[in-house]
Amino acid sequence: MRIDVVSIFPEYLAALDLSLIGKARQDGVLDVRVHDLRSFTTDRHRTVDDTPYGGGAGMVMKAEPWAQALESVLDGAPAAERRPTLIVPSPAGAVFDQAMAYELAELDHLVFACGRYEGIDERAIDWARGDFDVRPVSLGDYVLNGGEVAVLAMVEAVGRLIPGVVGNPESLVEESHSDGLLEYPVYTKPSSWRGRDIPEVLLSGNHAKIAEWRRLEQFHRTAERRPDLLAGVDTGALTKADLRA
Ligand code: SAM
Description:
Bound molecules: S-adenosylmethionine
């Protein structure tokens, strides 16, 4: 997968050199390119923002540097990867979730436009619809200072779903949100720690019983912490044991 990120703080994206995403880049599984929006300005001060029409607080990112940056990304993209998806992080976007992560992981080319200040001149986003599938996406219902943190989160969530990024693909299967429920509690050695023992069933060696216990814990935890998720569980896929839970 090819990923381009445009930002006025390219250093912010240095974390993409670390851990599993960094290794995937080294291994050529992910081709991540970070671009400095200011390189696409033409004035001495490398200006990327200006005052908002209509008045009000803050500054707005100018359309032209964005158009130049996105054209440059398109020019550098292999012919087969024309019409990439442009993710515009925004608190006014559709909320990012695991289903969206799976959907984006199927694509060849993602481009992320990191806004700052009061956001990007809307005309740049409209203009980009000519060449990109544009998706405004929110990390959640709160406001960040810029899109970079959102991009780090999205690239990690999407990247780890791409084959070859996570060493053992099985670890993706039973995670929170993979089946609409939260994950069961997990434990490691020692079995007794500071007066706390792990649930006995985990020492039983009985895989069917362990699976049943885990599934029950998934339901209990989801009901307690995120009851809203239960409404989305596919009831047709529930087992008899699930229904007992
Ligand atoms: N004035 C904008 C509004 O109220 O919708 C908020 C601008 S915010 C201070 C600056 C930038 O941070 C946004 O353009 C976006 O790139 C990013 N951002 C802020 N909150 C975000 C969120 N919840 N999800 C994704 N990106 C966010």
